[in-house]
Structure prediction request, 222 residues.
Amino acid sequence: MPPISEEDQKAKREFIGSFFDDFDKKAGYLEELYQSDHRDEARILCSCYIDAIASALYWPDERSNFNYVKSLKEHSGKEIFSHVHPKMLDEAVHKLSKRSGKWATIHTKISETLQGSDKKLYGEHEIIDLLTSLLKSLEMENIKQELWRGTFAAIVYDRFRIAAVHRFGPPDATTFDLTTFQGQPVPDIDFSMVYDCLKSIVAYARELSERTGKWFGHDYKW
Prediction:
């Protein structure tokens, strides 16, 4: 394929800018929608917009839940989304155990420790240190690959995104009694938190697209 001309590249960058200008308007409307007592609609759209941007950023990976979580971890600007909630991880491994005997064995070995852990969010290295003595090396490698399922970002996906899109909507806020992050109470998961994530993720996608001159940094195929 011949290289794109300077004129065509300029037109493409303008098209990219126009696309994100329009997307910013859509995202900006969500706050107005939420404040005008259309809260469920605002939550649904906010969740779907994050889904769409995440799918484009990590294309051709089609794992919606993985991409959603990854986008919050990498582009929300908040460290908390990468930290692991032990009971969420236990819940995730329990679900995996229903699919395979390998995971059933792992769950048996780690469930009690995860359930009895301190009421705080753990860094990934802290969780690994907590579980290493309980598992064989290959089992530990399996856990490392699936730690994302226990992150705070995964809780947002499960308690906010799935509830908004596939159920009857999340509560106004999902709270965490007595659970801490870096010594402070874990913030509630609510529209404001997820909306801030959306704005940060869209800003990153715009900057990447405009800087590289490629849709989402790699010429995402629409």
